[in-house]
Design goal:
The complex is a heterodimer of chains A (370) and B (88). Chain A is mainly beta and 370 residues long. Chain A has two helices and 27 strands. Chain A starts with a strand and ends with a strand. Chain B contains two helices and five strands. The chains are: A mainly beta (370), B alpha+beta (88). At the A-B interface, loops of A face helix 2 of B.
């Protein structure tokens, strides 16, 4: 089965498919033209299954499921929604489903969804019915954890599941921080020690941080990486203190960005796309010169790759879900999409890049499916 | 007896393209429940989990805007669902 890139955009879903050598690429779509598509994710346990987080400008949010690799889609019978508020409680309503994560390999049909406002939801029937995860959504500390938000509202994302234990979960909230559960989501604790939060009055705050993207290595689940609003970090559990590996980035580049993606087999290899986080946070390529940075030693050193990318006057923004790898070793594929509607690909671990699609709507997510 | 609900284009994927459909009920809430019974999922696109009409949705019963789901709907009334487009 040929690989497929699924592109979620502000105006619909698209696919880009390569030939066998990944030399030419064919853009198809749109599907759901006009819908706001935040995330499209394949189920690794059941590769025919895809899940899509969608809404439109005026209608409420929902989730669509496909069981035929995206040829046809069915809407969830019960989309993610908060429980009915009791008298005197804040009456929360899901504004958008922002993130989708397939459940543990041992729990077929299970999925997690993250929303804005920050909420965690779980489906046990392959996305037909979604239930709120009360352990997080009703946690007595929730209102304090998520009190900061972003200009786009609170965002719950990066739900990660320990491949050794379905009850060991991580999630991230912008802004709020990284949180861990060891009991299947019944209780959660902040996991932000060592992370900077220079926008908070307390430099040692336990929560309130802004993790832009949290990644867990699939084969080494004790190895976590984080691209944060305030730097790039690594954490090797059971330690609880994040190490700012972004300090090794060139000083004139810094270590701010949205996505961080990991090599599928090597826990020491990761890629980031630095962006401008100075002054009013333009969030664009630094100096108008896009580049991807790669570490092969867990963040001790970083190397710049910009071959094939524009050399000047290219003010790209790459959002947190808009970068991914495939696992076609040794010629690993790496892909990212921009808010300007371009999709860029590298078939040699990020060393040389080419644009494989352009003129798309604002890209929110780029994911790889087989 | 039933009222008639005019379906805007963003919701016609639920009604197999129908521009207007009959629905039962004496209140807007009951009319939406009637629609949900036939077109699963349509209510949640219009009304959130706290039973609030979504910000860019408006309901009119005949020529009157219905701002609450308890608004009465009479036999042979016409209910318009308006999607207020915003943004680019």
């Amino acid at each position: 089965m040929a690989a497929t890139l699924w592109i979620g955009t502000r105006k619909g879903a698209f696919t880009v498919r390569p030939d066998a050598r990944r030399r030419s690429w064919k853009l198809s779509g749109p599907q759901f033209l006009g819908h706001i598509i935040h995330h499209i994710v394949q189920d690794p346990r059941e590769p025919r299954v895809l899940m899509m987080a969608a809404k439109t400008g005026h209608l409420g949010p929902t989730v669509y499921r496909s069981s035929d690799r995206g040829r046809t889609w069915q809407e969830a019978g019960q989309p993610p929604a908060f429980r009915k508020a009791a008298d005197g409680e804040p009456a929360r309503a899901v504004q958008k489903v922002f993130w989708l994560t397939p459940g543990h390999a041992s729990e077929r049909g299970s999925w997690y969804a993250g929303s804005s406002p920050a909420g965690l939801f779980r489906s046990e029937d392959c996305g037909e019915r979604w239930e709120p995860v009360a352990g997080f959504n009703d946690h007595p500390m929730r209102s304090k954890w998520v009190g900061f938000g972003t200009p786009d509202g609170e965002l719950l994302h990066s739900v990660r599941i320990d491949s050794r234990d379905p009850k060991h979960l991580y999630l991230a909230i912008s802004a709020g921080g990284v949180f861990e559960s060891t009991d299947g989501g019944a209780d959660w604790t902040p996991l932000n020690e060592g992370c900077a939060a220079d926008f908070l009055p307390d430099p040692n705050a336990q929560f309130g941080h802004d993790p832009h993207c949290l990644a867990m290595h699939p084969r080494a689940p004790d190895r976590l990486y984080q691209q944060n609003h305030c730097g790039i970090y690594r954490l090797d559990r059971p330690a609880r203190r994040w190490v700012r590996i972004g300090q090794a980035m060139p000083k004139n580049i810094g270590d701010v960005g949205f996505p961080i993606v990991l090599h599928p087999t090597d826990p020491d290899t990761a890629w980031v796309i630095p962006m401008d986080g100075q002054t009013v946070w333009p969030r664009t390529s630094i100096g108008g010169k896009p580049a991807v940075y790669r570490t092969n030693d867990g963040g001790r050193r970083w190397r710049r790759f910009d071959d094939g990318l524009p050399k000047s006057q290219a003010w790209l923004t790459v959002l947190r879900q808009a970068m991914c790898t495939d696992d076609r070793l040794p010629q690993l594929g790496l892909y990212f999409g921009t808010t300007g509607g371009e999709v860029w690909a590298s078939v040699n671990s990020g060393e040389i890049w080419r644009c494989i699609a352009r003129h798309l709507p604002e890209i929110y997510s780029v994911t790889h499916a087989i | 007896m039933s009222c008639t609900v005019h379906i805007p284009s963003p919701l016609r994927s639920y009604t197999a393209g129908a521009l207007k459909v009959p629905a039962d009920g004496t209140t807007l809430e009951e009319v939406l429940a009637s629609l949900e019974g036939r077109f699963t999922g349509i209510r949640f696109r219009l009304v959130d989990e706290q039973s609030r009409i979504r910000p860019h949705i408006r309901f009119y019963v005949n020529a009157r805007e219905a701002q609450e789901l308890s608004a009465p709907v009479g036999t042979s009334d016409t209910v318009h669902v308006i999607c207020a487009l915003t943004g680019g």
